[in-house]
Specification:
By secondary structure, the protein is an alpha/beta fold. The strands form 2 sheets. Strands 1, 2, 3, 4 and 5 form a 5-stranded mixed beta sheet that branches. β6 and β7 form a beta hairpin. α1 crosses α3.
Length: 104
């Protein structure tokens, strides 16, 4: 399993998202290759189908897919048990990872 957290440097939330991902992987006992991907320009956003920072892809599939025609360097929000946040909570990452692990 290859996990790619995608981010752009001006995003204030990507580091917390990465910390939450690391914690979720530990909780779920998943030993995965985590490769941080810095999205630096519009062409990169289009190539990666970047839905905003932070984005989490497993084996090239977004954990929260959304079909779009355009992609851009922007922040992303997530619905969490604590309300709307700029990063997914550990709990919802655990749930997504468990689902993805079951599908592989």
């Amino acid at each position: 399993m290859k996990i790619e957290p995608l981010y752009f440097s001006d995003c204030p939330s990507w580091r917390i998202g990465l910390e939450n991902l690391t914690t979720a992987l530990q909780i779920e006992g998943i030993d995965a290759s985590v490769v941080l991907v810095k999205v630096e320009e519009h062409n990169d956003a289009t190539r990666w189908k970047f839905l905003g920072s932070p984005t989490f892809q497993i084996d090239g599939q977004d954990l929260w897919p959304d079909n779009r025609d355009t992609y851009s360097l922007s922040c992303r929000v997530y619905s969490t048990p604590d309300g709307i946040r700029g990063y997914p909570s550990v709990e919802i990452l655990c749930s997504k990872l468990t689902t993805m692990k079951g599908n592989s």
